[in-house]
User: Which sequence fits this backbone?
């Protein structure tokens, strides 16, 4: 419908934002071209009123057509305006609802696109990280007694671990804020959590010459909580990373566990740079970091502590931080509901020495495949490498692997299809299939399980997780590092 000064009653009422009354359409020149239509419907009078939303925008018109000539009475006008106002309210509410729904769809689409981008980014970053991490682990084992070379290898491993941690944090905060992380709950000994949480930061501890003291409950009186071991290890590791980062060389860092009523406490303190009173209430906010120089020498994204807080809350726990101010160090305490000591069968024991395995390694990233095979050979296993799915099937028929480590994004034949074909080969009954991939979303793990994989490891591989997998014991830990 045209809305201008030359429009009929409806368009003119919307244009002028006022009632347009036509007592007799036969005598109104604007109706000349519409006389036949008016006669067909027996229209003689037309009263049109604008429908204005609360915002003042005209969203329509309310029009009455009459078979008798005449103008509206005051009562007619009042009723018509009430109808127009009611229509305005209904239309406005529907438009607002439509706009909200459109906004929600746009937000969901944006979230989905963001998640897809982050997942792809993580995959692209993890692929080159895998051979770097493998090579670092390999060199560590062969360069014993070469201090200079070992220092360079440690540097490679530290930087690879740092990049892995940053990638994981980006994905974690996205999943956690959307409630898309599921905890793998079970009885967890906090002493073991502390031990595993310390492992990733040990190279930096040595590099900065920090003194680390650990005080945990004894094996006679261990502290257990119900939780996800890998996520609790991640919490300890993230806090320790900050302690190491913000403490000057030669500092002192303490880690302890102790009971506190019905709860168990993990504490981490340092004598580092401390936290200002202004920053203290915000240390668990996203992207918050201590003041630093322009060269960002300390690194990081300001995500780690935000992840810790959300994970602790998912465990029905609390986290607190205390600092006397800048230059006086900081103390973090994680408070978790305590449970009774479980039976020995429920507690994870250490991995026994693994018997040598025949391992098929399949990855189109030749550096990743070759470096992993070299590391497996150094550990006493017998690896065979293939770079394509059809090549892997041919090699498997004669090699008869006990374990197959398969990349997913293979050219020609995907890792999913390769897994199904290997699983269908009678001579490979009982083969253990492990997905080695840069994709680490929960749905990726589900897809690999549906394709027949026994386990899903994320690049770069945590070599302790790989050892568990080779032993036939799938751990709950995330294999991509903390």
Assistant:
């Amino acid at each position: 419908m045209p809305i201008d000064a030359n429009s009929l009653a409806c368009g003119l009422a919307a244009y002028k934002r006022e009632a347009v009354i036509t007592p007799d359409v036969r005598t109104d020149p604007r109706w000349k071209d519409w006389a036949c239509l008016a006669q067909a419907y027996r229209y003689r009078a037309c009263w049109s009123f604008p429908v204005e939303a609360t915002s003042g925008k005209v969203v329509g018109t309310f029009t009455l057509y009459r078979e008798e000539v005449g103008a509206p009475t005051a009562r007619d006008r009042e009723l018509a305006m009430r109808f127009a106002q009611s229509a305005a309210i209904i239309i406005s509410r529907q438009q607002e609802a439509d706009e909200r729904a459109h906004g929600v769809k746009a937000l969901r689409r944006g979230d989905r696109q963001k998640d897809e981008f982050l997942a792809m980014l993580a995959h692209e970053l993890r692929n080159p990280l895998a051979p770097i991490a493998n090579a670092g682990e390999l060199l560590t084992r062969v360069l014993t007694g070469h201090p200079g070379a070992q220092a360079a290898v440690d540097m490679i491993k530290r930087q690879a671990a740092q990049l892995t941690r940053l990638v994981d944090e980006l994905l974690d905060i996205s999943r956690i804020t959307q409630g898309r992380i599921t905890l793998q709950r079970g009885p967890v000994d906090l002493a073991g959590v502390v031990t595993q949480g310390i492992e990733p930061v040990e190279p930096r501890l040595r590099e900065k010459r920090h003194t680390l003291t650990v005080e945990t409950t004894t094996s006679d009186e261990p502290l257990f909580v119900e939780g996800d071991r890998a996520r609790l290890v991640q919490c300890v590791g993230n806090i320790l990373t900050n302690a190491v980062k913000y403490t000057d060389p030669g500092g002192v860092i303490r880690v302890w566990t102790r009971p506190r009523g019905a709860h168990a406490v993990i504490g981490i303190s340092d004598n580092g740079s401390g936290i200002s009173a202004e920053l203290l209430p915000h240390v668990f906010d996203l992207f918050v970091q201590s003041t630093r120089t322009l060269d960002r020498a300390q690194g990081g994204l300001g995500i780690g502590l935000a992840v810790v807080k959300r994970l602790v809350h998912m465990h029905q726990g609390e986290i607190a931080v205390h600092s006397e101010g800048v230059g006086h160090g900081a103390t973090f305490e994680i408070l978790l509901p305590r449970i009774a000591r479980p039976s020995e069968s429920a507690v994870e024991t250490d991995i026994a020495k693994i018997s040598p395995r025949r391992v098929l390694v399949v990855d189109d990233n030749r550096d990743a495949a070759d470096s992993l095979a070299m590391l497996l050979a150094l550990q006493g296993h017998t690896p065979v490498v293939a770079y394509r799915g059809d090549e892997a099937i041919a090699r498997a028929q004669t090699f008869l692997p006990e374990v197959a480590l398969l990349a997913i994004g293979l050219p020609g034949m995907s890792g999913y299809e390769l897994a199904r074909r290997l699983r269908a080969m009678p001579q490979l009954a009982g083969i253990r299939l492990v997905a080695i991939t840069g994709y680490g979303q929960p749905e990726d793990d589900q897809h690999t399980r549906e394709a027949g994989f026994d386990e899903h490891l994320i690049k770069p591989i945590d070599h302790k997780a790989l050892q568990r997998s080779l032993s036939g014991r799938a751990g709950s830990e995330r294999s991509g590092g903390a």
